[in-house]
Design brief:
Layout lengths: L3 H13 L1 E3 L9 E3 L20 H4 L12 H18 L4 H4 L2 H18 L13 H11 L10 H17 L6
Antiparallel strand pairs: 1-2
Helix pairs in contact: 3-5, 5-7, 6-7
Length: 171
């Protein structure tokens, strides 16, 4: 992808504080770069999975994986329970909380397994952000709008279709 030269320049700048500008060899080719901060990110599912160790030594490396299903259950139970109980929703709506969380996580798992990223569909990458967007949409609901369990289920279906369906290339 012709990125090696950019990586080499970045490494040179980080190590020595300057780079050589080959277009101005007759004049002063040294270009000093100071007072910079470099923040980088790698996609664990695409591209090269290795970094030049001479470049990587200048970074602090953090790797964050997908939380376990039980951790996600606790997180979304806390969010949804707080919204439904403090929002004044009727018992019929609040009693569906566990089933909505279970359904959302099962749907997310199914979408991740069935819609894999390919060269043609490189945007088929579903992560925790998509699951969070579904719950963010649910937390916007007001008690006067969602006065029956069926309406909460319809809202969940709508939010799920909006979050996942918008990324798909066909119905």
């Amino acid at each position: 992808y012709m990125t090696q030269s950019a990586i080499a320049l970045l490494r040179q700048q980080m190590e020595y504080g300057h780079i050589y500008d080959m277009t101005t060899l007759a004049q002063n080719p040294v270009k000093s770069i100071s007072k910079t901060q470099v923040v980088a990110c790698m996609n664990p599912t695409a591209g090269s999975f290795e970094i030049n160790p001479r470049l990587q030594r200048w970074f602090v490396t953090f790797a964050i994986g997908m939380p376990s299903r039980s951790s996600l259950n606790v997180i979304y139970d806390t969010f949804l329970n707080g919204h439904l109980t403090k929002g004044g929703f009727v018992e019929e709506v609040t009693s569906l909380k566990d089933n909505i969380i279970k359904a959302a996580m099962n749907l997310h798992k199914e979408v991740m397994e069935k819609f894999r990223k390919t060269a043609a569909n490189f945007h088929y990458e579903f992560n925790i952000r998509h699951l969070a967007n579904v719950f963010q949409g649910l937390r916007v609901a007001q008690a006067e709008q969602i006065n029956a369990g069926e309406k909460l289920v319809h809202l969940w279906l709508h939010e799920s279709e909006r979050v996942y369906g918008d990324r798909l290339v066909s119905p």
